[in-house]
Design brief:
Helix content is 43%, strand content 21%. It is built from 8 helices and 11 strands. The strands form 3 sheets. It has a 5-stranded parallel β-sheet, sandwiched between helices.
Amino acid sequence: MSDILLVEDDAQLARNLTRFLLSEGFSVTHRISQTAALEAFRSQRFDCALVDISLAEGNGFSVCAAIKKESDTPVIFLTASADEDCTVAGFEIGADDYISKPFRPRELIARMKNVMRRKKPAETVITCGQVSVDTSRGTVTKAGSEVFLSPMEYRLLLVFFTNKEKVLSRDRLADELWSYSGEFISDNTLNVYIKRLREKIEDDPQEPSVIRTVRGLGYKAVEP
């Protein structure tokens, strides 16, 4: 569930929008002023802020500027003003999107999901049991100790871990390694890579618990 901070001093709009967001599976914290909004922001983590520019106390620009100074939380301005200068000013202080009132609720949801997806950090560490792959560094560890793999062994492990719990045929694995190396991968070569990989990451390579054989189908990585 995504947590949304709604900063809006129009009581009826806030009530209707809160009801709609809740029906769409979001959690909503509603505040009507700049001060109250920033107090809420600093006491709770939010996935997105919907901010009206014109507030009875303070203004949305100041709310956005403070949020962006302290975090990378996405901010979408909701405003009745379609003035170009106002729009430009909003983007210059860090707003992620700008929606003019009246707006279509489902379009708002789509744009909220879009900015939250853009802000979501890419997964860089993939773990299976005691084995972890840090894709940003290109390193592999087992129980906290680094494991040194050849480029092809690393590629093979990455294929397994990004398809965890999925059965991968021998043809699929050979194709993945072929596309990586540009060289034909025979059955015997694939056997060698799987054997070497198991020797480096399994507690007992003869009874593998991470990369398991699925008889007649192929292999799959599983949580031990």
